[in-house]
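sorry for the late reply, my laptop died twice this morning and i had to redo everyting from scratch. anyway the thing you sent over, i finally got around to it. pasting the sequence first so we're on the same page, its 249 residues, then the predicted structure underneath. double check i copied it right bc i was rushing
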Amino acid sequence: MKLLIDIGNTRIKWCFSEAQQLTAQQAFNWQLDFLTHLFSEAWNNINPPTEIWVSNVSGNTMANKLTQWTQKQWQLTPFFAQTHYQCCNVTNGYQKPQQLGIDRWLAVIAARYLCSDAACIADCGTAITIDALQSNGQHLGGLITLGLSTTRSTLLKKTHALTHLSDINSSNPDIFLGKETTQAIMQGTLVSVLSLLEYTVKYLERNEESVILFITGGDALQLIPLLSINYQYEPNLVLQGLHIVAEHS
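ok and here's the structure:
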C-alpha cells in the first residue's frame, strides 16, 4: 500500500494506492509552524504504508519536515517525484525540463493516461497553471497566472477604494454583470480565467481534431458551471499522475 501525497502552496492532498486503485482523496490546509501536528493528526492512526510518494512544490523545508516525520513514525523515507525530459509516454516541452513544476508534470502524465486526444490541463488553485498536450504525447508548454482567490485578494489590497470589501470569493453562476462592486470583481475575475481557458483550447484546436480540457484545483468548481467547452473535472489529477509514476518506477 503506497501513500501518495500532493503538497501544494496552501493544501496537502493525499490518498492511498492499493491494488492499482486510488482511495478517496483527503486534504488539509497547512502552515509551516504546525506541520508536525498536522502530519500526526492526518496519519497517526492509519495503517503504515509500504512506500510514500510525494509531489512537492513547497520547497526543501517542507520536504525535510515530512521526511523527518515519516522516518520517525514508520522508518520510511519518501520518494519525491521529479520532472524529467520523458516519462510515461509524455515528452516534456520545456527547454530545461526540471523547470516545469512537478505538479504540472504529473497532471500532464495523468491526462495522457486518461485520454488519447490532445488536452489542455488547467490546475486552478493559488496560481492557475495551464499546460498543452498534443495527441502524440508531446507537451507543448504552458501558461501561469494568478488564481481566482489570489487575484481577488491582491486587488483588494492594492486598490485603496476597495480595501473595505470582504467575502469576495462567493460565486453565483446565474449572474454575469455585477450590480455592485463585490459582484463585479467576482464576475470579472471568473470571466478572465474562463476566457483564458477557452482561448487556449481554441488555439490548440487549430492543429488538433479534438481537444479536451482537464480541470482540477480548489477553484475549479467556481469555473465549471460557466464553461462552454468540452471538459473533464478531475479533482485528484496530480495524485493520479503520481500513482502512474510510482507504478512505473
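The radius of gyration is 19 Å.
thats about all i looked at so far, will dig more tmrw
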